[in-house]
Design goal:
By secondary structure, the protein is of the alpha/beta class. The chain is elongated, with a radius of gyration of 31 Å. The chain starts with a helix and ends in a 6-residue tail after the last helix.
Length: 671
């Protein structure tokens, strides 16, 4: 039966290629309302009696002698009780469709058993196809929330009797999910500013035998609240992300909804959050999808609002989602679970759903939803005490210590190898050295590598903050027309992929003599990229081994040593490739934003560890020789073994002794 339904759906889609969505929607609506009992579930008895007309029969038998006219006649009969139908009528009037094709579609829909392939399923499959194939000839795809995400949000709310509201209801999928999840009959409310979604959401719910109050008209929720002063038991929402200039020429300097702070003009994310909180009943709950930037933004207005919401104990949980779940955006997003006066302790559950097992791929499965809702339920009952790599509970005090940042990585366990676990791998370093000795590698390099066979580990280590050793300075920023000429400029790509300043330069920039001095490159300078698409590539380092007649770009920070006798530049290249340094970066970074970023405030928390100068030099010289040899090497096996040697050498002679040093000093190892 599933295969037959799929074939029928393909036939429907093929016939619809020559017509606008409004015709298919009109036919599905009329077909659904003609089923026994459909009208009585949606309307009062008096309203139902107004529609004593064979809606579908009139279309099927073409009583008006023209299929478009027959459709219009039937729609006219239901318009008084379903005012949104006026939009369908208006859209249909502007279309010229071949009667033969329309007849085929009508008879195909008539022959389908509603039990086997409901009108609602045809409608939803149509919206999903348009969205997944990026077919935006209809804007319906803009408002489609994947069903699995809608089900998950509804399950988090665990709705009972009462009212449910979606302030930006789009296709109505979220409201429908809440209604289906509830064992009681909910009264549904919503609002949308788009005329098309005003139609779509009502279509979605009516085809499922439900009704919704969308207010008198389509209107901007934030500027013209259609349900002002009304409170709801459950709110579910997927607002437009990062909506700029959302209030036009009327700055909202005062509004009862802005209880936690005035939202900035540049972004409506926290306007939506506060709008939702203002509409919650006492002990009401909300589930809201927002971009991950809301968890970490340091924009003054937004950070202050987030802090106030946290301190007022309105957040139950934060769940970050893996990428690729939405058709229309690649922006990393998260779910905020809000509660009105229900979370007395202020503790927040943090979940990184990307680390769940089994892995979430394109959709949530029923198993994923069950596991997630069970976690949330236990948290609400104050029964969740375990902290794992992908979830954990944090107190208000802990969140305050993290500057009210809500990235789950700050509050979940990070599973990293310990001191003894790393040292047990020492034999692998010896094996790699033996394997390299059997390969046709130059004698000077083999001699340098062999020195580490049973070499002693440095006993004396020191530590200092990054800012105690280096002067940190930003790079030059120029307009586009300044590039392609002038002096070489170090770019982010080079910093990420090369531990040393290269011999050749891919980019050039026109700068003044003053800018050359200000943003120059000297022996011992370390350069790190302050932003990247992934945390793994954030704050990678590239070291200058000689003075350069060049500058560095604005997305890079320069670390210039105050005293060149403390850190050997070649050792710096080794250290900044170590796991210890990477763990430090991960500890201070917010990893769930669109771009991972690091600033001076975060860099000031980074510690640098270094042994005696002789050990520094030996490590640095060896790994530099390996790097130089690899540049000229074309043998795949040799390059693989040399990479392994680099990895184990840094792990055994930098990472391991630093972990020992931290233990002896009583420091908490990088978590």
């Amino acid at each position: 039966m599933k295969a037959i339904c799929s074939t029928i759906q393909k036939e429907i889609e093929q016939l619809c290629t020559s017509m606008k969505d409004s015709i298919l929607f009109s036919l599905l609506l009329l077909r659904q309302l003609s089923q026994d009992g459909s009208l009585s579930r949606l309307l009062t008895n008096n309203d139902a009696k107004q529609i004593e007309y064979p809606l579908w029969e009139s279309v099927l038998t073409n009583q008006e002698g023209n299929y478009m006219s027959s459709i219009a006649k039937s729609l006219t009969f239901i318009e008084p009780v379903f005012p949104f139908v006026h939009k369908l009528i208006a859209q249909n009037e502007r279309q010229d469709v071949e009667e033969r094709v329309l007849k085929q579609l009508i008879h195909l829909l008539s022959d389908i058993s509603i039990d086997d392939l409901p009108c609602a399923a045809i409608y939803e499959n149509h919206l999903q196809r348009k969205t997944s194939t990026d077919d935006m000839s209809s804007s319906s795809g803009d408002f489609y929330t994947p069903k699995s995400i809608a089900q998950c949000l509804a399950a988090f709310l665990n709705p009972g009797r009462g009212t449910a509201y979606d302030p930006c209801c789009g296709s109505g999928a979220l409201l429908l999910a809440v209604q289906k999840c509830s064992k009681q009959n909910l009264n549904l409310y919503g609002q949308t500013q788009d005329e098309n979604s005003y139609l779509l959401s009502q279509m979605t719910l009516i085809l499922h035998g439900e009704s919704v109050n969308l207010g008198k008209t389509a209107a901007s929720t934030l500027l013209d609240d259609q349900h002002k002063n009304k409170k709801f038991d459950y709110i579910i929402a997927n607002p437009p992300f990062n909506h700029a200039n959302w209030f036009g020429d009327n700055p909202p300097f005062y509004d009862d909804r802005w209880h936690f702070g005035i939202p900035p003009r540049s972004n409506a994310n926290f306007a939506w959050l506060q709008h939702i909180l203002s509409h919650l009943q006492p002990n009401g709950r909300a589930a809201v999808i927002l971009p991950n930037g809301t968890l970490t933004t340091q924009t003054y207005g937004e950070a202050g609002i987030r802090q106030a919401i946290i301190q007022n104990k309105r957040i139950e949980a934060v769940i970050t989602l893996p990428p690729g779940l939405f058709y229309s955006t690649k922006v990393p997003c998260c779910i905020w679970l809000l509660a009105n006066s229900d979370n007395k302790s202020g503790d927040i559950l943090f979940i990184n759903a990307a680390h769940m097992k089994p892995e979430i791929k394109k959709d949530f499965t029923s198993e994923h939803i069950e596991v997630l809702t069970e976690l949330v339920s236990k948290h609400r009952q104050r029964k969740l005490h375990t902290c794992t790599e992908w979830y954990g509970v944090a107190s208000l005090e802990k969140i305050e210590q993290n500057d009210f940042i809500l990235s789950p990585n700050r509050y979940t366990a990070v599973l990293r190898p310990g001191e003894s676990e790393i040292h047990r791998e020492y034999g692998k370093l010896l094996e790699t050295i033996e394997e390299l000795s059997a390969l046709p590698i130059s004698e000077p390099l083999l001699s340098s590598i062999a020195r580490w066979k049973n070499a002693k580990i440095a006993k004396h280590w020191e530590k200092a903050t990054l800012f105690e050793i280096y002067d940190v300075f930003g790079g030059v920023t120029k307009s586009k027309d300044s590039f392609g000429k002038g002096v070489p400029i170090l770019d982010v790509k080079t910093v990420i992929h090369s531990p040393y300043i290269p011999d050749s330069w891919p980019s050039y920039v026109d700068v003044t003599e003053d800018e050359k001095r200000k943003y120059g490159i000297e022996y011992g300078d370390v350069f790190l990229n302050r932003t990247s698409e992934t945390t793994r590539e954030l704050a990678c380092c590239c070291v200058a081994l000689e003075d350069q007649d060049a500058v560095y770009g604005g997305f890079i920070k320069r670390l210039r040593p105050y005293d060149k006798q403390i850190i050997n530049p070649l050792y710096a290249a080794c250290y900044f490739r170590s796991e210890i340094y990477r763990w430090e970066i991960e500890n201070v970074s917010t990893v769930y934003t669109t771009y991972a970023s690091i600033d001076n405030r975060k860099l000031s928390k980074i510690t640098v560890f270094f042994p005696d100068m002789e050990t520094q030099k030996n490590l640095g010289d060896t790994l530099f020789e390996v790097f130089q040899y690899q540049k000229q090497c074309s043998d795949t096996l040799q390059k693989k073994r040399l990479k392994e040697f680099e990895y184990f050498l840094i792990r055994q002679y930098i990472t391991y002794p630093i972990l020992r040093f931290q233990r002896k000093e009583g420091d908490s190892p990088c978590r």
